[in-house]
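User: I'm curious whether this sequence folds into something compact or stays loose and floppy. Could you predict its structure so I can see for myself?
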Amino acid sequence: MPKSPVRKSVAALLLASGCLASASVSAETLEELDALSDLSADEAAGLEAARKQAGRGEYLDALATLERVLAVHPKSRDALLDHALYLCAIDDRQGGLLEISKLKKKQYGKKLIDQSRDRCERGSTG
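Assistant: Here's the prediction. I'll summarize afterward.
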């Protein structure tokens, strides 16, 4: 079965950036990686998967899933915000705060950005 252009693009991006080996800590086969790539090609499904992973405490997997979502949907507001918050959750507060600082108040609202910054500074994920 031929691969879709989106799937080829995601695979190429993962290979080019050297992320294939760390695409998912729990993925063991190429078939599982393909399934994760397919899932994250759909923005809503990728966000849901990442949130489920984070809910289980699998923040590195959630970050990898969000990075695949962002490879296909680079302006996904939810993925950008969740990515920043999950960086904070793995104790990369500097990275998380940097990503939060790039969020536009016009798109997210001052209150949400302030709450996100506060959560990150506290190291809170919930």
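Summary: The helical segments are 5-17, 30-41, 43-55, 59-72, 77-89, 93-101, 105-108, 110-122. The mean pLDDT is 81.
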